[in-house]
Amino acid sequence: MTVTLIAWIMGGVGLLASLIGAVVQPEAFAFAWLAALSTWLRWPLGCLALLLVHALTGGRWGVSTRRSFVQGIRVLPLLLPAVIPLLFVLPDLYPWLRAGEAARLDNGFYLNGPFAAARWIFYLVTWLGLGALVTMRLRRNDSLTPVAAPGLILLGLTVNFAAVDGIMSLDPHFNSSAFGMINAAESGLFALSITILCTVLAGPVAPSERDNQAKMLQSLLILWAYLDFMQLLIVWQSDLPKEAAWYLARSSGLWGVLAGLTAVAHFLLPFLALMIPRLRRSRRGLITTTTLLTVMAIIRGWWLVLPAHAHGIGWIDIAAVLAFGGITTGLLLRGPVPSWRVNHA
Question: Whole domain around residue 204: which residue ranges?
Fold first, then answer.
Protein backbone atom coordinates (compact mmCIF):
# COMPACT_ATOMS: atom_id res chain seq x y z
CA MET A 1 0.00 0.00 0.00
CA THR A 2 1.52 3.31 -1.07
CA VAL A 3 1.84 6.39 1.12
CA THR A 4 -0.53 8.26 -1.20
CA LEU A 5 -3.23 5.61 -0.82
CA ILE A 6 -2.81 5.58 2.96
CA ALA A 7 -3.18 9.38 3.02
CA TRP A 8 -6.38 9.25 0.94
CA ILE A 9 -7.84 6.50 3.15
CA MET A 10 -6.96 8.46 6.29
CA GLY A 11 -8.46 11.64 4.86
CA GLY A 12 -11.57 9.87 3.63
CA VAL A 13 -12.18 8.16 6.96
CA GLY A 14 -11.62 11.43 8.80
CA LEU A 15 -13.98 13.32 6.50
CA LEU A 16 -16.69 10.65 6.77
CA ALA A 17 -16.41 10.59 10.56
CA SER A 18 -16.54 14.41 10.64
CA LEU A 19 -19.72 14.43 8.55
CA ILE A 20 -21.28 11.87 10.89
CA GLY A 21 -20.28 14.11 13.77
CA ALA A 22 -21.93 17.07 12.06
CA VAL A 23 -25.20 15.15 12.07
CA VAL A 24 -25.12 13.64 15.57
CA GLN A 25 -23.26 16.44 17.41
CA PRO A 26 -23.43 19.60 15.29
CA GLU A 27 -22.12 21.95 18.01
CA ALA A 28 -19.12 19.72 18.76
CA PHE A 29 -18.45 19.41 15.03
CA ALA A 30 -18.45 23.21 14.64
CA PHE A 31 -15.64 23.67 17.15
CA ALA A 32 -13.72 20.60 15.94
CA TRP A 33 -13.81 21.76 12.33
CA LEU A 34 -12.81 25.32 13.25
CA ALA A 35 -9.86 24.07 15.32
CA ALA A 36 -8.63 21.84 12.49
CA LEU A 37 -9.18 24.51 9.82
CA SER A 38 -7.49 27.29 11.77
CA THR A 39 -4.46 25.08 12.40
CA TRP A 40 -4.24 23.81 8.82
CA LEU A 41 -4.62 27.33 7.38
CA ARG A 42 -1.40 28.40 9.09
CA TRP A 43 0.53 26.14 6.73
CA PRO A 44 -0.27 27.59 3.28
CA LEU A 45 -0.40 31.16 4.58
CA GLY A 46 2.87 30.69 6.45
CA CYS A 47 4.51 29.21 3.34
CA LEU A 48 3.31 32.17 1.30
CA ALA A 49 4.71 34.64 3.83
CA LEU A 50 8.06 32.87 4.16
CA LEU A 51 8.48 32.65 0.39
CA LEU A 52 7.89 36.41 0.10
CA VAL A 53 10.27 37.09 2.99
CA HIS A 54 12.95 35.03 1.28
CA ALA A 55 12.36 36.90 -1.96
CA LEU A 56 13.16 40.15 -0.13
CA THR A 57 16.00 39.03 2.13
CA GLY A 58 17.56 36.01 0.47
CA GLY A 59 19.44 33.57 2.69
CA ARG A 60 20.49 29.96 2.44
CA TRP A 61 17.65 28.82 4.70
CA GLY A 62 15.15 29.27 1.87
CA VAL A 63 16.99 27.60 -1.00
CA SER A 64 16.37 23.91 -0.41
CA THR A 65 12.98 24.58 1.23
CA ARG A 66 11.61 26.53 -1.76
CA ARG A 67 10.02 23.46 -3.32
CA SER A 68 8.13 22.69 -0.10
CA PHE A 69 7.00 26.31 0.19
CA VAL A 70 5.45 25.96 -3.27
CA GLN A 71 3.75 22.74 -2.15
CA GLY A 72 2.19 24.58 0.77
CA ILE A 73 0.87 27.39 -1.44
CA ARG A 74 -0.65 24.87 -3.87
CA VAL A 75 -3.12 23.60 -1.23
CA LEU A 76 -4.52 27.08 -0.50
CA PRO A 77 -7.56 26.63 -2.85
CA LEU A 78 -8.66 23.79 -0.55
CA LEU A 79 -9.72 26.59 1.80
CA LEU A 80 -12.87 27.29 -0.22
CA PRO A 81 -14.56 23.89 0.21
CA ALA A 82 -13.19 23.66 3.76
CA VAL A 83 -15.02 26.84 4.81
CA ILE A 84 -18.42 25.67 3.54
CA PRO A 85 -19.29 23.37 6.50
CA LEU A 86 -18.74 26.24 8.93
CA LEU A 87 -21.35 28.38 7.18
CA PHE A 88 -24.08 26.08 8.53
CA VAL A 89 -22.91 26.16 12.17
CA LEU A 90 -21.75 29.77 12.67
CA PRO A 91 -24.33 30.60 15.41
CA ASP A 92 -23.07 27.59 17.38
CA LEU A 93 -19.56 29.06 17.29
CA TYR A 94 -19.99 32.79 17.78
CA PRO A 95 -22.29 34.22 20.48
CA TRP A 96 -22.30 37.63 18.75
CA LEU A 97 -24.28 36.09 15.85
CA ARG A 98 -27.18 35.40 18.22
CA ALA A 99 -29.58 38.32 18.57
CA GLY A 100 -29.84 38.14 22.36
CA GLU A 101 -26.08 38.06 22.92
CA ALA A 102 -25.21 40.67 20.30
CA ALA A 103 -27.43 43.29 21.93
CA ARG A 104 -25.30 43.23 25.09
CA LEU A 105 -21.93 43.74 23.37
CA ASP A 106 -19.96 46.98 23.46
CA ASN A 107 -18.08 46.02 20.27
CA GLY A 108 -21.17 45.20 18.23
CA PHE A 109 -20.13 47.73 15.61
CA TYR A 110 -17.33 45.28 14.69
CA LEU A 111 -18.78 41.91 15.66
CA ASN A 112 -21.87 41.65 13.50
CA GLY A 113 -22.85 39.35 10.66
CA PRO A 114 -22.74 41.66 7.61
CA PHE A 115 -19.44 43.31 8.52
CA ALA A 116 -17.86 39.94 9.41
CA ALA A 117 -19.00 38.46 6.07
CA ALA A 118 -17.48 41.39 4.18
CA ARG A 119 -14.19 41.00 6.03
CA TRP A 120 -13.98 37.27 5.34
CA ILE A 121 -14.72 37.75 1.67
CA PHE A 122 -11.85 40.25 1.60
CA TYR A 123 -9.53 37.79 3.40
CA LEU A 124 -10.34 34.96 0.99
CA VAL A 125 -9.96 37.11 -2.11
CA THR A 126 -6.66 38.49 -0.82
CA TRP A 127 -5.18 35.10 0.08
CA LEU A 128 -6.29 33.29 -3.07
CA GLY A 129 -5.35 36.23 -5.29
CA LEU A 130 -1.92 36.60 -3.72
CA GLY A 131 -1.33 32.85 -3.95
CA ALA A 132 -2.32 32.84 -7.63
CA LEU A 133 -0.09 35.86 -8.33
CA VAL A 134 2.94 34.28 -6.68
CA THR A 135 2.32 30.96 -8.43
CA MET A 136 2.01 32.68 -11.80
CA ARG A 137 5.23 34.63 -11.33
CA LEU A 138 7.09 31.50 -10.24
CA ARG A 139 5.83 29.61 -13.28
CA ARG A 140 7.15 32.38 -15.53
CA ASN A 141 10.43 32.59 -13.58
CA ASP A 142 9.67 36.25 -12.83
CA SER A 143 11.12 37.97 -9.77
CA LEU A 144 8.94 38.00 -6.66
CA THR A 145 10.64 41.12 -5.34
CA PRO A 146 8.14 43.65 -6.84
CA VAL A 147 5.19 41.91 -5.17
CA ALA A 148 6.91 40.75 -1.98
CA ALA A 149 6.65 43.93 0.11
CA PRO A 150 2.99 44.84 -0.67
CA GLY A 151 2.10 41.16 -0.49
CA LEU A 152 3.56 40.83 3.00
CA ILE A 153 1.71 43.93 4.18
CA LEU A 154 -1.61 42.58 2.90
CA LEU A 155 -0.86 39.14 4.28
CA GLY A 156 0.13 40.50 7.69
CA LEU A 157 -3.02 42.60 8.04
CA THR A 158 -5.43 39.92 6.86
CA VAL A 159 -3.88 37.10 8.91
CA ASN A 160 -3.92 39.36 11.99
CA PHE A 161 -7.58 40.32 11.68
CA ALA A 162 -8.64 36.81 10.58
CA ALA A 163 -7.24 35.39 13.83
CA VAL A 164 -9.25 37.95 15.77
CA ASP A 165 -12.43 37.21 13.81
CA GLY A 166 -12.05 33.45 13.64
CA ILE A 167 -10.63 32.49 17.03
CA MET A 168 -10.48 35.38 19.47
CA SER A 169 -14.11 36.37 18.88
CA LEU A 170 -15.25 32.96 20.15
CA ASP A 171 -15.22 34.91 23.42
CA PRO A 172 -16.46 38.37 22.36
CA HIS A 173 -15.40 39.84 25.71
CA PHE A 174 -11.74 38.85 25.39
CA ASN A 175 -9.44 41.57 24.08
CA SER A 176 -5.79 41.31 23.07
CA SER A 177 -3.84 43.57 20.75
CA ALA A 178 -1.20 40.84 20.41
CA PHE A 179 -3.47 37.93 19.49
CA GLY A 180 -3.19 38.43 15.73
CA MET A 181 0.59 38.84 15.89
CA ILE A 182 0.88 35.66 17.94
CA ASN A 183 -1.12 33.78 15.31
CA ALA A 184 1.05 35.24 12.51
CA ALA A 185 4.24 34.14 14.25
CA GLU A 186 2.75 30.71 14.89
CA SER A 187 1.77 30.44 11.24
CA GLY A 188 5.38 30.99 10.21
CA LEU A 189 6.60 28.50 12.82
CA PHE A 190 4.08 25.83 11.78
CA ALA A 191 4.71 26.31 8.07
CA LEU A 192 8.49 26.20 8.44
CA SER A 193 8.28 23.10 10.66
CA ILE A 194 6.29 21.20 8.03
CA THR A 195 8.47 22.58 5.23
CA ILE A 196 11.73 21.51 6.85
CA LEU A 197 10.25 18.11 7.70
CA CYS A 198 9.12 17.55 4.09
CA THR A 199 12.44 18.81 2.70
CA VAL A 200 14.56 16.56 4.90
CA LEU A 201 12.37 13.52 4.24
CA ALA A 202 12.30 14.13 0.48
CA GLY A 203 16.01 13.72 -0.12
CA PRO A 204 19.55 14.46 1.03
CA VAL A 205 20.14 17.94 2.45
CA ALA A 206 23.64 19.17 3.29
CA PRO A 207 24.34 19.54 7.03
CA SER A 208 25.13 23.23 6.53
CA GLU A 209 21.70 23.79 4.95
CA ARG A 210 20.00 21.89 7.77
CA ASP A 211 21.85 24.13 10.21
CA ASN A 212 20.61 27.29 8.46
CA GLN A 213 17.03 26.01 8.40
CA ALA A 214 17.20 25.10 12.09
CA LYS A 215 18.44 28.57 13.01
CA MET A 216 15.56 30.19 11.16
CA LEU A 217 13.16 27.78 12.87
CA GLN A 218 14.58 28.71 16.25
CA SER A 219 14.15 32.42 15.50
CA LEU A 220 10.45 31.94 14.74
CA LEU A 221 10.07 29.75 17.83
CA ILE A 222 11.53 32.48 20.05
CA LEU A 223 9.35 35.16 18.41
CA TRP A 224 6.15 33.15 18.92
CA ALA A 225 7.03 32.24 22.54
CA TYR A 226 7.92 35.85 23.39
CA LEU A 227 4.66 37.27 22.03
CA ASP A 228 2.56 34.55 23.65
CA PHE A 229 4.26 34.96 27.03
CA MET A 230 3.98 38.76 26.93
CA GLN A 231 0.23 38.51 26.36
CA LEU A 232 -0.10 36.26 29.41
CA LEU A 233 2.18 38.50 31.49
CA ILE A 234 0.22 41.66 30.66
CA VAL A 235 -3.10 39.99 31.54
CA TRP A 236 -1.71 38.63 34.82
CA GLN A 237 0.13 41.80 35.84
CA SER A 238 -2.77 44.11 34.97
CA ASP A 239 -5.34 41.80 36.59
CA LEU A 240 -7.77 42.14 33.70
CA PRO A 241 -10.94 40.19 34.66
CA LYS A 242 -12.35 39.47 31.19
CA GLU A 243 -8.97 38.47 29.79
CA ALA A 244 -8.13 36.44 32.90
CA ALA A 245 -11.37 34.48 32.43
CA TRP A 246 -10.15 33.43 28.98
CA TYR A 247 -6.98 32.01 30.51
CA LEU A 248 -8.81 30.41 33.44
CA ALA A 249 -10.93 28.38 31.01
CA ARG A 250 -7.68 27.14 29.45
CA SER A 251 -5.76 26.41 32.64
CA SER A 252 -8.06 23.97 34.46
CA GLY A 253 -8.43 20.23 34.03
CA LEU A 254 -7.27 18.80 30.72
CA TRP A 255 -6.57 22.28 29.32
CA GLY A 256 -4.21 23.07 32.17
CA VAL A 257 -2.28 19.89 31.43
CA LEU A 258 -2.10 20.81 27.74
CA ALA A 259 -0.96 24.34 28.62
CA GLY A 260 1.93 22.89 30.60
CA LEU A 261 2.66 20.41 27.82
CA THR A 262 2.76 23.28 25.34
CA ALA A 263 5.29 25.17 27.44
CA VAL A 264 7.55 22.12 27.60
CA ALA A 265 7.05 20.36 24.24
CA HIS A 266 6.18 23.31 22.03
CA PHE A 267 8.90 25.61 23.30
CA LEU A 268 11.42 24.34 25.86
CA LEU A 269 12.41 21.00 24.31
CA PRO A 270 12.59 22.27 20.69
CA PHE A 271 14.46 25.39 21.86
CA LEU A 272 17.06 23.34 23.70
CA ALA A 273 17.39 20.90 20.79
CA LEU A 274 17.94 23.73 18.33
CA MET A 275 20.60 25.20 20.59
CA ILE A 276 22.82 22.15 20.06
CA PRO A 277 24.80 22.38 16.77
CA ARG A 278 25.06 18.61 16.42
CA LEU A 279 21.28 18.21 16.62
CA ARG A 280 20.67 21.13 14.26
CA ARG A 281 22.80 19.48 11.59
CA SER A 282 21.47 15.99 12.26
CA ARG A 283 18.81 14.65 9.92
CA ARG A 284 17.24 12.58 12.67
CA GLY A 285 17.38 15.44 15.16
CA LEU A 286 15.71 17.86 12.77
CA ILE A 287 12.99 15.34 11.84
CA THR A 288 12.24 14.73 15.53
CA THR A 289 12.13 18.43 16.37
CA THR A 290 9.91 19.46 13.46
CA THR A 291 7.57 16.51 14.03
CA LEU A 292 7.21 17.53 17.68
CA LEU A 293 6.47 21.13 16.70
CA THR A 294 3.88 20.01 14.14
CA VAL A 295 2.05 17.74 16.58
CA MET A 296 2.09 20.37 19.30
CA ALA A 297 0.68 22.97 16.89
CA ILE A 298 -2.35 20.71 16.41
CA ILE A 299 -2.75 20.34 20.19
CA ARG A 300 -2.41 24.08 20.63
CA GLY A 301 -5.12 24.59 18.00
CA TRP A 302 -7.43 22.50 20.16
CA TRP A 303 -6.34 24.46 23.24
CA LEU A 304 -7.24 27.77 21.62
CA VAL A 305 -10.65 26.77 20.25
CA LEU A 306 -12.21 23.88 22.15
CA PRO A 307 -12.43 25.42 25.66
CA ALA A 308 -15.03 27.83 24.25
CA HIS A 309 -17.21 24.72 23.81
CA ALA A 310 -16.63 23.69 27.45
CA HIS A 311 -15.85 20.10 26.45
CA GLY A 312 -12.69 18.05 26.11
CA ILE A 313 -11.10 16.49 23.05
CA GLY A 314 -13.36 13.93 21.40
CA TRP A 315 -13.45 11.66 18.37
CA ILE A 316 -14.86 14.41 16.13
CA ASP A 317 -11.83 16.62 16.87
CA ILE A 318 -9.45 13.82 15.89
CA ALA A 319 -11.52 13.02 12.78
CA ALA A 320 -11.37 16.64 11.59
CA VAL A 321 -7.58 16.71 11.91
CA LEU A 322 -7.31 13.41 10.03
CA ALA A 323 -9.54 14.79 7.27
CA PHE A 324 -7.37 17.85 6.70
CA GLY A 325 -4.08 16.00 7.07
CA GLY A 326 -4.99 13.02 4.90
CA ILE A 327 -6.64 14.92 2.06
CA THR A 328 -3.86 17.51 1.91
CA THR A 329 -1.15 14.86 1.88
CA GLY A 330 -2.97 12.89 -0.79
CA LEU A 331 -3.27 15.96 -3.02
CA LEU A 332 0.41 16.81 -2.65
CA LEU A 333 1.59 13.28 -3.40
CA ARG A 334 -0.70 12.90 -6.39
CA GLY A 335 1.70 14.47 -8.89
CA PRO A 336 5.09 16.09 -9.26
CA VAL A 337 5.67 19.63 -8.04
CA PRO A 338 7.23 22.02 -10.56
CA SER A 339 10.70 23.13 -9.50
CA TRP A 340 10.22 26.80 -10.21
CA ARG A 341 13.07 29.21 -9.77
CA VAL A 342 12.79 32.33 -7.60
CA ASN A 343 14.63 35.37 -8.85
CA HIS A 344 15.67 38.04 -6.38
CA ALA A 345 16.72 40.64 -8.89
Answer: 3-333
